[in-house]
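Q: I have 314 residues here and want to know how they pack in 3D. Can you give me a structure?
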Amino acid sequence: MDIVPITDLINEFKLQVLTGGVDMTNRYLVGPEVDRPSLQLTGFFDIFHHRRLQILGRIELIYMSKLSPEIRKERLQKLFSYNIPCVIICGSKEIPQDLICAATQSGTPLLLSSDRTSAFIAEVNKWLRVQLAPCMTVHGVLVDVFGEGILIMGESGIGKSETALELVKRGHRLVADDAVEIKKVSNTTLVGSCPEITRHLVELRGIGIVDIRHMFGVSSIKSTQNIDLVIRLEMWEEKKEYCRMEPSSDTISFLDKDIACITIPVRPGRNLAIICESAAINHRMKAMGINTSASFMDKINAGFGIGINNDIGS
């Protein structure tokens, strides 16, 4: 798990700082969860997730306005006595002065958002889950092909970057070359991106480093992409038997999440870009319940394939 500085949160959501004199240098968020300290304002502190981002909405502010000044001051002092990363106020333009004073005295950043509380919580929770997601880096190329995130892997020099370049020329979008950062943003979703230093760049042996954005325009690049399919390139072995009818289903695991994986043998004359396009379309069709290979094998097994032998497709 990573950490998110409070200053990044402020810049991302354009929050207004209400406690100008508070130092935010060493203020961080360490988890994606957010909390609304409603019960704490009633005096219940037996369970308080104080390390989470705290959000006060109109309901909490209205409740505070009903309290007597003495009780409100006591509850706020108790609230801010914990080491809270920061407090964000949503959906209100009238901020109680004693709330600002209590935050300032405790050294807790008090921030203001113009968004409605529920909408802000949804957006900040999604953003924090991406920022704080478990992360790893793999060697490969990530390309958006017809909306499918295709991670191309294989030994160095096998043609991953050249395949990505051809895919870009055919109208698809490059996400990352050589190093792909993978984040697990949920139990079902892996998102790939590129390190800042190599963003938009591709290394081609014999040519060097080329800038895809400058060569093909901004429509040829993408900052992030869900990873839907892994294509593993390997050198063609003449003595190896390759199944041409229904390849066995295979998966590869990243951060305890299995991703469908297919192996493509490479030899001169094979157009890897077209093969990757076909693999992307075929993967989407399977997700829609259309499995051409399985249907064809069912016809053969049902007796419609009389005379068809293992040489089919040669």
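Q: Anything worth noting?
A: The radius of gyration is 27 Å. The longest helix spans residues 272-287.
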